[in-house]
């Protein structure tokens, strides 16, 4: 039985549909991320699970129990808010004690729990301070602490890493994951960042306009994106998107666009029936072999963007502009002729409606 089950849930604000007929099962002790651009409905889903909103349609189950009309305090759920929502006039200790007082625990039990949580998050030296006297990273840990101190079965984290700089995010990700494992909670996190979601999650779901486009383990999003939106969203470098025609030239299957031609004969089992169709080729910059001589697709280097141990080349392949990633050992310069070979098992092919036909379907 899933720990959290949303069944055909719809949530509207006036005429705006924030969550649209959404079904999602999250397993016990799983770390699940809701990934998506701002406004896609991530926070709304967390608020629905927490009981801060009620669905207009559909059902929400927690641990098998229908909770549509169960108030937040009776749901065994704790939420860390995007705004952090710390009480400015209270000390860190009082901020952490606040959710526990509502549970009618003894002062002694409250003190023990706060001590344990503060040690876990390394904020035990901050307990007497007020939020204004904390750094951004410390405030983030206190807000996380306020959600953890309840020891609820379900932990909801709304953009928990949003206030941290790039380096702190790396530490915080590791820390959150470790704590979630140790406390054996079911965690649901919202984030716009594919890196945050992919590094921390057992599974994740990509949202757009209140709908889930794909739910899978992170790796599957890169290997088999379901459509062009998903492929673009999860690609850390800009995805090369090339509208093509599939041609049969003397038994050879070619995806062509202007002077660009990619031989896809090896994929004939999937493509043979689509000769003549308009298809969309998706190529990540990192899945292209670059050579100094044929064979391959002839191209010219337009510009080089150094990225440390790697360079991004902007190239022109038969009139098509593309980005490819190469090791910085190769010292290309603008005007160089190169030959490229996209790795056929790593490219994506979409139909005209932008739905994946390869490799998603295999
Ligand atoms: P996300 O967390 O993915 O950024 P939200 O769940 O916050 O998205 O919002 C989804 C959509 O619902 C957005 O278009 C947002 O403007 C709208 N929305 C959210 N909360 C409210 C509200 N209280 N009143 C009106 N519209 C809202
Ligand atoms: Mg949000």
Q: What would your notes on this structure say?
A:
- With 362 residues, the protein is α+β, with helices and mostly antiparallel strands.
- The chain has two domains: 4-221, Rossmann fold, CATH 3.40.50; 234-358, OB fold (Dihydrolipoamide Acetyltransferase, E2P) (Beta Barrel).
- Helices cover 24% and strands 36% of the residues.
- It contains nine helices and 21 strands.
- The chain has helices spanning 42-50, 92-101, 107-120, 136-148, 166-183, 194-200, 218-223, 228-234, 268-271, and strands at residues 4-13, 16-26, 31-35, 57-62, 65-66, 77-80, 154-158, 186-191, 203-208, 211-216, 240-249, 252-257, 260-263, 278-283, 288-291, 297-306, 310-317, 320-327, 337-342, 348-350, 356-358.
- The strands form four sheets. The chain has a six-stranded mixed β-sheet with strand order 6-7-8-3-9-10, sandwiched between helices. A six-stranded antiparallel β-sheet has the order 13-12-11-14-20-21. Strands 15-19-16-17-18 form a five-stranded antiparallel β-sheet, with no helix packed on it.
- Strand 4 (57-62) and strand 5 (65-66) form a beta hairpin.
- Helix 2 packs across helix 3 (107-120) and helix 2 packs parallel to helix 4.
- It is elongated, with a radius of gyration of 25 Å.
- The protein starts with a strand and ends with a strand.
- The model has no long low-confidence stretch (mean pLDDT 95).
- Bound molecules: adenosine-5'-diphosphate and magnesium ion.
